[in-house]
UniProtKB/TrEMBL annotation:
<dbReference type="GO" id="GO:0003887">
    <property type="term" value="F:DNA-directed DNA polymerase activity"/>
</dbReference>
<dbReference type="GO" id="GO:0005829">
    <property type="term" value="C:cytosol"/>
</dbReference>
<comment type="subunit">
    <text>DNA polymerase III contains a core (composed of alpha, epsilon and theta chains) that associates with a tau subunit. This core dimerizes to form the POLIII' complex. PolIII' associates with the gamma complex (composed of gamma, delta, delta', psi and chi chains) and with the beta chain to form the complete DNA polymerase III complex.</text>
</comment>
<comment type="function">
    <text>DNA polymerase III is a complex, multichain enzyme responsible for most of the replicative synthesis in bacteria. The epsilon subunit contain the editing function and is a proofreading 3'-5' exonuclease.</text>
</comment>
<keyword id="KW-0378">Hydrolase</keyword>
<dbReference type="GO" id="GO:0006260">
    <property type="term" value="P:DNA replication"/>
</dbReference>
<feature type="domain" description="Exonuclease">
    <location>
        <begin position="32"/>
        <end position="201"/>
    </location>
</feature>
<keyword id="KW-0269">Exonuclease</keyword>
<dbReference type="GO" id="GO:0003677">
    <property type="term" value="F:DNA binding"/>
</dbReference>
<dbReference type="InterPro" id="IPR006054">
    <property type="entry name" value="DnaQ"/>
</dbReference>
<protein>
    <submittedName>
        <fullName>3'-5' exonuclease</fullName>
    </submittedName>
</protein>
<dbReference type="Pfam" id="PF00929">
    <property type="entry name" value="RNase_T"/>
</dbReference>
<keyword id="KW-0540">Nuclease</keyword>
<dbReference type="GO" id="GO:0008408">
    <property type="term" value="F:3'-5' exonuclease activity"/>
</dbReference>
<dbReference type="InterPro" id="IPR013520">
    <property type="entry name" value="Ribonucl_H"/>
</dbReference>
């Protein structure tokens, strides 16, 4: 990429970075959250690729159904085994775009929003690897993981990891469009709001309360 050789970045990256010039709001009601999910060719962070990205925004602690992003990526790789999970064929009728265009759209959509995902480390790593292939830096957004937020509620300490299906069942969230990026993003958005209501019982909740402690281990 020419911008890498010149030690400069494309305009869309500069625009993305410009949104981080101000300090992040701490009051959840004043924060724009973007709940997102990726469907991929597999679970190998380095070797597999993103097939689709689904995003939905939350503002004033309300899901903004009209504020969504969904894109499908062209498949250079194809794993027939995962088709039965996500249903995305290599060709099919869906309009698909190049990975570079998908990243540009994703960055333009999220701006400086706080990102939310279930088991977020994987999705963030997949996005960051796509950016790396474009010779771009990693995402700058703060990230929240609904799996970690559930741990903070201390509602169930029997194990450290709960699937999206398990938590959806616990909180009576219908699993419509499960295993589509947009469907999973919407389910996760509902879960996120339910978790916030559980966590906001004794004190005024802030973003710092929701973030992982500094001694955390992992990708996020």
């Amino acid at each position: 990429m020419n911008w890498f050789k010149q030690k400069s970045y494309p305009r869309f990256w500069d625009v993305y970075m410009s949104h981080f010039s101000k300090l992040q709001e701490q009051n959840p009601k004043a924060i724009r959250f973007v709940v997102f999910d990726t469907e991929t060719t597999g679970l190998h962070i380095k070797n597999d690729r993103i097939l689709s990205i689904g995003c939905i925004a939350i503002e004033n602690l309300q899901i903004k159904v009209a504020d969504q992003l969904e894109c499908y990526l062209k498949q250079e790789q194809f794993n027939a085994e995962t088709v039965k999970i996500h249903g995305l064929l290599k060709q099919g009728k869906l309009t698909k775009i190049e990975e570079s265009e998908a990243m540009e759209r994703f960055l333009a959509y999220i701006e400086n929003a706080v990102l939310v995902a279930h088991h977020a480390a994987f999705d963030i790593a997949m996005i960051n690897n796509a950016l790396k292939r474009l010779n771009l830096p990693k995402l700058k957004n703060k990230v929240l993981d609904t799996g970690h937020l559930f741990q903070k509620t201390k509602l169930d300490t029997s194990k450290s990891h709960f699937s999206l299906d398990e938590l959806s069942k616990r909180f009576h969230i219908p699993l419509h469009d499960r295993h589509t990026a947009s469907g999973d993003a919407y389910i996760t958005a509902l879960l996120f709001l339910k978790l916030l209501s559980k966590l906001n019982t004794n004190s005024e909740l802030t973003l710092r309360h929701l973030e992982r402690p500094n001694n955390r281990v992992g990708l996020i």
